[in-house]
Design brief:
Blueprint (H helix, E strand, L loop, with lengths): L1 H8 L10 E2 L2 E2 H9 L25 H11 L11 E5 L5 H19 L3 E7 L5 H12 L10 H12 L3 E7 L13 H12 L6 E7 L3 H4 L3 H7 L2 E5 L4 H15 L7 H13 L4 H17 L7 H21 L3 H17 L2 E2 H16 L8 H14 L4 E7 L5 E6 L2 H26 L5 E4 L11 E4 L13
Parallel strand pairs: 3-6, 3-7, 4-5, 5-6
Antiparallel strand pairs: 1-2, 8-10, 9-10, 11-12
Length: 468
C-alpha cells in the first residue's frame, strides 16, 4: 500500500508540445537563427541593382560616347545635353553609376569641382522630381510648404558653385497629373533653361522609349538640343555571357551549371524578360537553395523562382495602390474575364459599385473623365494594363479599352480580391473606434496617399450662471 501511495504522489509528466505560430514551430525558427547555414552565395550583392561591376561588358561604345561628352567639363568646355533611351535592363543606369563613381574619384584627386545629381523620376510627379533634385543638393532641406518656383530658386545657387551633371532616369514613367501637359516635357524644359551660359550644368535624360522625344514641344527641343544615344537590347549570346559572369562572381563553384545558364538565358529572351528580371530570379533561387540546404541550383529551381519573382512584383504593385486604383483594377479584371476585353464604360460601372462597397458612404466616387484621364493613366505607367483608343462619343468623350496581360489576369483578379478583403477588415476596425475618431481619406487627385486617421479631443461645454 505504501509503495502504491508513493507512486501516486509522483508528479505526472506532461507531454511538451513545441509552441507553434501559424504552423511553424519555435524550434524551427531558432534553428534558422542559431545553426550555421551553408550558403551558395559568394557575394549576394552581385544580383542586386546596387552592385556596380568593374566593367560593363558589351557596352564599350556607349560608355565611350558618354565619357567623351562628360570629359569636356575637365577641359573648360560645356558638355552637351544627352538623351539616352533603351529597353529596361540594357545597362543605362549601371553605365551612369560607373561613370559617376569614376569621374567623382578623379575629380577629387585633381581638385575639380564637379557634382553628379541622380534622380529616379519613376512614378514621381513633376514637383516630386524637382524636390528630389533639391534634396540631392541639400539633404537637410524641408520640402513642406515649398512651392515649385521656390524650389527652383533654391536649386539655382547650387548650380553656380560647380560643374553639375543632372541625370533624370525613367522620365517616361513620370506620373501625369494634368492632362494638358506631359511632366517630362516641363521637367526637361525647366532644367535646360536653368543651365544658362553662365552656369556649367548639363542634363542627361534616360528613358525606355524614344517616342517621348517626339512628344516634346518645339521650344523644349530647341532649349534641350541633346546628343542622342541608343542602348540596344542584348542578344542570346550576350545575355548568356553576362549571366554567366555574374554567377561566377556571385555563386560558389559548381552551384549552377553552364548548360542551365544557357537554357535560362534563352528562356528569358523568349518570354520577353530583361536582364534585371534574370538577376532577381538568380537571387531568389539562391535564397531558396539556402533554405532547403541545397548545394546546387537546377533549371527547375530557376523556373519556379521566375514564377515567384513575377508574382511578387504584381503583389507589391497591388498592395501600394490607393482605394480608387484598386477598385478600378478589380473592375477591369472582372470585365475582361467576362468579355475578353474591358471597355472604359463597363469598367466604370463596376468601379462605382466596388468603391462604395470598399469605403462605404464615406467614399468619393470620381467621374469617368477623371478616372480615364488621370487615375488610369497613372496605372498604365506602372505597367498594370494597357489601353487603346476605341472612339469618341457624341459629347466629345473618349472611349477606351483596357487589357491586362492574359498570363497575369487571374493572379491580378485574385490578388485584388485579397487586398480588398484586407482593407474591408481594417475599415471595420476603424469604424468601431469611438465617435472622437474621424476618418480623413486622401483626395482623388492625390491617389498615392494612404488613409489617414485623425483623433480630435472631446469638446468641453462651459456653463455660465446668470446673476440676478
Amino acid at each position: 500500500m505504501k509503495k502504491q501511495n508513493e507512486k501516486n504522489k509522483q508528479p505526472i509528466k506532461q507531454k511538451q508540445n513545441p509552441i507553434k505560430t501559424k504552423g511553424i514551430s519555435i524550434e524551427k525558427i531558432r534553428s534558422y537563427i542559431t545553426e550555421p547555414v551553408e550558403t551558395v552565395f559568394k557575394n549576394a550583392d552581385v544580383f542586386t541593382e546596387r552592385y556596380i561591376p568593374e566593367r560593363l561588358i558589351f557596352r564599350d561604345d556607349e560608355i565611350n560616347q558618354i565619357l567623351e561628352n562628360v570629359a569636356k567639363a575637365f577641359q573648360d568646355i560645356k558638355p552637351q545635353n544627352m538623351f539616352i533611351w533603351g529597353s529596361p535592363g540594357t545597362g543605362k543606369t549601371t553605365a551612369f553609376e560607373m561613370i559617376m563613381k569614376a569621374f567623382g574619384r578623379e575629380a577629387n584627386k585633381l581638385g575639380i569641382p564637379i557634382k553628379f545629381i541622380y534622380v529616379d523620376a519613376k512614378y514621381k510627379t513633376l514637383p516630386q522630381a524637382i524636390g528630389a533634385t533639391l534634396q540631392q543638393f541639400d539633404r537637410m532641406v524641408n520640402l513642406k510648404g515649398i512651392g515649385f518656383e521656390e524650389m527652383l530658386q533654391k536649386i539655382y545657387p547650387h548650380l553656380e558653385k560647380q560643374i553639375t551633371c543632372l541625370i533624370y532616369d525613367d522620365v517616361d514613367k513620370m506620373i501625369k497629373k494634368y492632362p494638358y501637359a506631359e511632366p517630362f516635357d516641363i521637367l526637361i524644359n525647366t532644367i535646360s533653361r536653368l543651365a544658362t551660359k553662365n552656369i556649367d550644368a548639363f542634363t542627361c535624360v534616360l528613358a525606355n522609349n524614344r517616342k517621348i522625344e517626339n512628344e516634346l514641344k518645339s521650344f523644349t527641343k530647341s532649349t534641350f538640343a541633346p546628343q542622342r544615344l541608343y542602348f540596344r537590347e542584348y542578344n542570346a549570346t550576350e545575355m548568356n555571357l553576362i549571366i554567366q559572369d555574374r554567377c561566377e562572381v556571385g555563386f560558389h563553384d559548381g552551384v549552377i551549371s553552364k548548360e542551365d545558364i544557357v537554357e535560362f538565358s534563352k528562356y528569358l529572351l523568349s518570354t520577353s524578360n530583361d536582364l534585371r528580371t534574370g538577376l532577381d530570379v538568380l537571387k531568389e533561387a539562391g535564397w531558396h537553395a539556402n533554405l532547403k540546404k541545397q548545394k546546387t541550383i537546377s533549371s527547375d529551381d530557376l523556373l519556379k523562382s521566375l514564377t515567384k519573382v513575377i508574382k511578387n512584383t504584381l503583389v507589391e504593385s497591388i498592395t501600394q495602390l490607393s482605394d480608387t486604383q484598386l477598385a478600378l483594377l478589380w473592375s477591369i479584371a472582372l470585365v475582361q474575364k467576362r468579355k475578353g476585353f474591358a471597355e472604359s464604360g463597363h469598367a466604370y460601372n463596376q468601379y462605382k459599385e466596388k468603391i462604395l462597397e470598399l469605403l462605404g458612404n464615406n467614399s468619393f466616387v470620381c467621374t469617368k473623365r477623371h478616372l480615364t484621364r488621370n487615375v488610369a493613366a497613372q496605372m498604365e505607367v506602372m505597367g498594370l494594363f494597357t489601353s487603346k483608343l476605341k472612339g469618341r462619343g457624341k459629347a466629345g468623350g473618349v472611349a477606351l479599352t483596357y487589357s491586362i496581360d492574359m498570363e497575369e489576369l487571374d493572379d491580378a483578379f485574385n490578388l485584388c480580391n485579397i487586398e480588398i478583403s484586407k482593407r474591408k477588415k481594417t475599415s471595420k476596425i476603424i469604424s468601431r473606434i469611438s465617435g472622437q475618431t474621424k476618418i480623413v481619406a486622401g483626395g482623388v487627385g492625390d491617389d498615392l496617399e494612404p488613409l489617414r486617421v485623425k483623433k480630435y479631443p472631446p469638446k468641453v461645454v462651459k456653463t455660465v450662471k446668470l446673476q440676478k
